[in-house]
Protein 1
Amino acid sequence: LFLSEIAPTRIRGGLNILFQLNVTIGILFANLVNYGTAKIHPWGWRLSLSLAGIPALLLTLGALFVTDTPNSLIERGRLDEGKAVLKKIRGTDNVEPEFNEIVEASRIAQEVKHPFRNLLQRHNRPQLVIAVLLQVFQQFTGINAIMFYAPVLFNTLGFKTDASLYSAVITGAVNVLSTLVSVYSVDRVGRRMLLLEAGVQMFLSQVAVAVVLGIKVTDHSDDLGHGWAIMVVVMVCTFVASFAWSWGPLGWLIPSETFPLETRSAGQSVTVCINLLFTFVIAQAFLSMLCHLKYAIFAFFSAWVVVMSLFVLFFLPETKNVPIEEMTERVWKQHWFWKRFMDGDNHHIVNGKITANNGASV
């Protein structure tokens, strides 16, 4: 949310995905720490767990030096501070058009007394539905199941304990490098293209893993053999790579840039809540699913990949290079399906002024 509000339109996607890049770097470091502390008996796991306090401390200290966004300052009536911050982050004094748009958007936002209740109104339904479904779909790709339980999964495939942790480090490194692909390409090829390409790649890699495990791993044998085991690791890395440049970062980026100012904070709160809820659900259910479904768990997740790819194809609009305050006019009112929900939206912003649908200034 913070990054979407301060980013220039042309690089909003890439700048926002730097958030996800740092998440993946954190995951990689966590895997490296686990790999190192696994050799310390019997208290290595305590060291691993306690070291998580370091990034928490850094995050808290860093928050003390971060200024509010211009949108937030202006919405709270601190117009001069908002303009000063806008000039600073844009690197120019010529910010009047953008400043006026934010001022007018904040006036609309101040008319909304109950933003969470306002989220349920008809004209906010497209953004809410997409934000919620993106979080559900992100978890049903199976990524957290694979990343959380990579050591368990690789142990099941016949790797020894050290090798399984090492394999988890490999997937973490792939995650970081592939997120860089998204940083570079998201504002060039667009959100939809990345999601659709990744859908094909995730589906094929998961089906390949399911087929190999279905044929080679049975109730009487869990030894894949070296060649097949390497193939499974490669397919898992292929899956992680496609997720890292698509559903991973874009699941956060798209909701943060699509809500109007009056419901943006509330909408992002719902987004995070749904994400953590389904992260919890998948984390709790995965081991039981792995025991009962076995290789079919990858078929289960691949079926969900098909569903979410079809949703993207038909219902997710492209938001590349669209100013964040112009989403309603240029995206939602132009979409073949969602435009029907915009009928009750009687105002929009043109050249920094709110106008009614009949063109009169408000």
Protein 2
Amino acid sequence: LKERLPSIGSRSVPYTGGDVKKSGELGKMFDIPVFDNPPSLKPSRPSSSSQHNSGSVRSGPNSGPMGTRPSHSGSIPKKSSGPVVPLQPTGLITSGPLGSSVGRRSGQLGQTGQLEQSGSMGKVVYGSAVTVLGEDLRLGFRVSKAVMWVVAVVVVMGLVVGAFLTVAVKKVVILVAVAAVAAPMVVLLTWNCAWKKRGLLGFLTRYPDAELRGAVDGQYVKVTGVVTCGSIPLESSFQKVQRCVYASTELYEYRGWGGKSANPKHSFFSWGCRHSEKFVADFYISDFQSGLRALVKAGYGAKVAPFVKPTKVADITKENRELSPSFLRWLADRSLSSDERVMRLKEGYIKEGSTVSVMGVVRRHDNVLMIVPPSDPVSTGCQWARCLLPTYVEGLILTCDESQNADVIPV
């Protein structure tokens, strides 16, 4: 016997002509409200005599259209496959900490770092995938504390002994000799404190670029190339510059004689930082030397030292305060007072397509090339020609040209 093809329905579906009222199932599929529903047809219960005498009932399930075969023309339940996350314009997917696998990072699609709009306020809040940086960079001298204490004790003892001999012998020559020996040390220390950051920038500029093609795992390299946003692009808070890999907004206040201080370290007649917002996330960099693309792990709380010079956005005084409603709105979103203070707003960012230099450690994990922050601070070494002591900096180093807007490459 030939197998009978399975039937799709027990009876033919009448043509409705596109009228939703004649087909309730069509309205359920497309969530169309139907107000005039037709009365439901309730089949009458057959009597016991008809059940015994009806041939269609006594026959098998394939004996006719009135058989008790299952029907597939019922309502179609709606299934939800979850929110569909669109792919970024760059086509690159990155997320997750360094310890997780690559498949897990690509599957998460940065759900923990999506942007969140905070209620009635216009301030954008990022998730844990975006690193929030502090106000100042941690720069220090690579000199042991024991040596510094020994030098300080010797200088103090020399001054005390010189003063005692001056009083006893009544000759100022001894005190002058001791001061002449201690003066160069003080000048050297003052010079290093003033030129510490500039000397570090010179060291970073002179550091040679490496090729990612020949870099081995664990090697400290400097890579220069074009940056591309990862799964979480950033945005500057005031100018709303989109698709950035690094964004900072800083509010400074000028303190005159007897004015209010912006921070505990704010001195008189100077500008002090009152509020700071600095964010950085994972991004890609395409090496100019080898053409390879590497993932820079700057998010998830990584230590990052950005050297990006901010630009002045607005100067707010008592006269022009009411002429800038956007600035007043920016202050209100952050619960900052807008009293009669002289304020200055600065913003710095690294936009997608900018040329950036990154200094970090190469890591190769599951055929993925990454640049991660070093575990130990990086020292510049003694710069004898510039009379600079060894200076160290912690974390991943990011440097960008000042004229970044003119060098942006469309990506």
Protein 3
Amino acid sequence: PCRSVLTVACEQTEVLLFDPISSKHIKTLSEAHEDCVNNIRFLDNRLFATCSDDTTIALWDLRKLNTKVCTLHGHTSWVKNIEYDTNTRLLVTSGFDGNVIIWDTNRCTEDGCPHKKFFHTRFLMRMRLTPDCSKMLISTSSGYLLILHDLDLNKSLEVGSYPILRARRTTSSSDITSSGSSGSSGPRAVGSPCHQNDSGPLSEKHMSRSSQREGGSPRNSLEVLTPEVPGERDRGNCITSLQLHPKGWATLLRCSSNTDDQEWTCVYEFQEGAPVRPVSPRCSLRLTHCIEEANVGRGYIKELCFSPDGRMISSPHGFGIRLLGFDAHCSELVDCLPKEASPLKEIRSLYSHNDVVLTTKFSPTHCQIASGCLSGRVSLYQPKF
């Protein structure tokens, strides 16, 4: 968060640390995990967490990198995502076992920390918390986006204890189960994602439960959406990457068709407001901007991101990255919301890699961008406009 260190998750068990100002290599954690390292999340300016295909999460302290603070065991398949609620100091992880697990870092010891299974869904790809931690978004390889509203991480979700608020298009009740259910492993990031086209209405049991509730939406109310994707109206799609606007105004998705012949970056505005009925609010997301991507490096997930002020998007594009804006002047999203979905504007393209770029990240404090490609090269940019 203070921009003193750039951390890089690598496919072969390593974590690399760089000084982003001098671009010098600081340290390599050569055996950070026993399998591919997938994601890194800073909890504060010194403590960070890594997750891996070895099914574990590790906590590290920048002041003592020779050993882990602790290793967390709880997932049964590849762990792909880490989030952190700074208010409660709860760590939230998700994996291809379909589980979202909550870890109480307030009671962390060398042997780990207390944890509980919070939520489960099949085909889980990515999980994110909004900046104010009021919502949890979960994307799936079957094209569904799940939103838990009025999030309460301290509340355990039992079978049928959360009401379904709305299902846009179609969904399957077998895809959404509670924390007590077990599920099969999802697809691996390396290799073609598993695309599933599920159908069928929500179960009458869930609908009757939600329809019986009165008043405003209760905590952890579940909304099920199939986000509109250009060119994919009649075909399924896989939501591979999921990010949130830093001010909580929108969500950013990278989607690929179920035949892997098209790839899109899409921005969806959060639509807040009074529900039409207490248990059936209007659809929470509206497609505002989109752009077609290069669709290279099929089977690999490309992680994109917002700039710290939310005015730009950095998106992997072939052997480089594209800086995209909502208009040509990098205006705020709220100042240029179109009535219908409009193309994202390409502000600048940056190419310095000799292989497919898989990830990109803005510095939280300076005009600097990092990108990493499949062959292992990390590039730092200071773009001039």
Protein 4
Amino acid sequence: KSSVQTIGEEQIQNPYTELLVLKGHQDIVRFLVQIDGCRHFPILPLIFHDFVFQTGEKLHELHGHTHKITAIAPFSSSDGTEEETDLIITASADRTVIVWDCTSGRQVQKVSCFHSTVKCLTVLQRLNVWLSGGSDLCVWNRKLDLLCKTSHLTDAGISALVELPKNCVAAAVGKELIIFRLSASNTGSEGWNVLEVKRLVDHQDNISSLVSVNDLTFVTGSHVGELIVWDALDWTKQASECNFWDSSVHPDVQPEIKLSQSPNETSVQHLTSDEECVFAAVGKGIYVYNLQMKRVIACQRTAHDSSVLHIEKLPNRQLISCSEDGSVRIWELREKQQLPAEPVPTGFFNMWGFGRANKQANQAAKKMLENTPMYFLELVGDLIGHSSAVQMFLYFGELGLATCSADHLIILWKDGERESSLRSLALFKKLARNGDLQLKL
């Protein structure tokens, strides 16, 4: 019997009561990336389409890669002499990287000099360069000129990159976190150097997720369920959590009876942050880690029937998560109502003063308990539409939500009340125009 929390048909707090299904892909849609306020690119192994969110209209169909796409990054390009151009960079298992023009849909340039698959791409807009991570770290300008590169790291290569202050980046390479610094070369204006400045070896297993919190902090997660909080300036370890699945650490959560635990149930698949908390997708569960308290303040150990693949924080204390089981769920972080603590009992020892120190300790513990808020995650929405693993999603604010899946579909989830109001307004405007036309006639 599944221990996953369920919700009935009456989902009062779920605004996504209207959906638009986009068909056309013949394979798994793996990534979504936002170009501007109303467009997004869904990515699959061989082609990608540019859709207008509001209508689902297909704008471009682009072909170029021969194997699955492994990384994608938007790149707004401008050198001051021409208009800003929305570009997108894609890397593939065919060991190529292609830059596309989002407006025209044309292929701008293609690079085929890689010795291994590029697994991650990061754009440093402030420096007007972008980085590719594979068996080495390469630095490129917007014209796709190779500015510099590191020596060969490992055959497994870089799995994730994140920008840090002072022209630094953190690269996840197996169990290690390598800090690189970019510096302008003295030999020319376009010259750059990339230097390794530190290796962090605190993780016990391969790093599976890497996310920046702010200019002062970044966080990593590993396959064995380790979460480490790092200082982004001096790269020291600030805090850690490695007991997500331990019911003794979270006594208010009902434990599951299992004979063994598979690695997938403890792996940190995805991390996101709102600067106050880090939200971690660990196995089938969702955990909220408060950075100031340095502890988990809320969790759903079985948020889905299968591994959670992607999680995002919404502005109104809500989260969205998607899973291998094909579900997309909305959660709200709520504060628990605290019960009043029991008074310290008086008795023989207290009467003679023997219990004074113990009484003071109890009062201090009581005060700390009263000042520490407790939270829980409440399921407020369950979006049923996909028949296979939902790879990820994009949140577009009031416009809605876009999800992509292994079922080859993209679904645009929309606020039903808002869409109904927009249709009514459009109808009233049309009737008003027709009335004005009749008056003129």
